[in-house]
Amino acid sequence: MDWKNAFDKDRELILATCSKSAEPNANIVISLGFVDGKLLIGDYQMHKTIENLKATKLICIISKSDNHYLRAKGSVEVQNEGRYFDICQNADKNYPAKNAILVKIDEVINLENQKKIL
To answer: Where does 1-118 have alpha helices with state H?
Structure first.
């Protein structure tokens, strides 16, 4: 299994963040897939998530693929203009994008056997 398939476009993902004061937060989002080697996620109504990401720049993401749960950890860039933002803006016509979240994935773990994939 290629781990990137678990984070493909249109996959449901669970994002977990934490504030500077260690207050946890989680959201369910839809992946926009990999662009330029980074996972792209659109922010359409994630107020606390964006606040946390701007403060800590860290994220944890859970996805399921082929009956396997994977956990990815990485660092983020939050952008509200430019090419990545435009992709998010065009991805959902029902909601205007507020930000583009670009995730540089640093680690991937298979949660079933705790095997490190990346």
So the answer is: 47-56, 83-91
Average pLDDT over all residues of the chain: 94
In the chain, % helix, strand, coil (3-state, to 5) comes to 20, 50, 30
Measured at the CA of 69, the angle between CA 52 and CA 17, to 5 degrees, comes to: 5
Domain boundaries, the chain: 3-116
Q: How far apart are the first and last CA of the chain?
A: 13
The answer to whether the CB of 92 falls within 8 A of the CB of 67 is no
Tokens, residue 49: 């998530």
At 68, the pLDDT band (50, 70, 90 cuts) reads confident
Q: What would be the CATH architecture of the domain defined by 3-116?
A: Roll (2.30)
**Would strands 24-35 and 12-18 be described as parallel, antiparallel, or unpaired?**
antiparallel
**No. of helices (H) and no. of strands (E), the chain:** 2, 7
CB atoms within 10 A of CB 46: 20
